[in-house]
Amino acid sequence: MNHKITSGGLVSLCLMVAFTILLTSVPAEAAHCSTAASAGMWDYTYTGTIFTSSGPLPAASVGHFRQDAAGKLSGSQTRSVAGGSGVEDISGNITVRGNCTATATINVLVKGELQRTAVLAVTFDNNMNHGRGIFKSLVLPDGTNVPVVITSDNTRVFPKN
What we know:
This protein is an alpha+beta fold. 16% of the residues lie in helices and 57% in strands.
């Protein structure tokens, strides 16, 4: 029996194999993302702009936090807004979805007093050793919404394999 494989048939076979591998590996990769899997010690920076009635103000921060398997987190940060710096505590929670996206709600406190609450949209990559976020909202204790464009870069202190 003599079988011939044409170049078109070979290309089709290779594409079919590649798509099968791609489609089966994407859910497996995404399946490892969860709130529990994101637990650990993290460092972060954020930079951006706070918009006030007096004009835009540059903002930046560097900080760290520890997160447990239930998504509860606490830590501290040093932030600078328009050149004025301060040290603040943070606490809150994060919920991670199987597609490696998350929502974090972070309370910022000074000497135990709430200063503001931020809600961030986060996405994880690099085996959940790195995350990027953007502030969805920033709200003061009196309910005032503060317009911002701030992004964060988050790195696990002790990476997972």
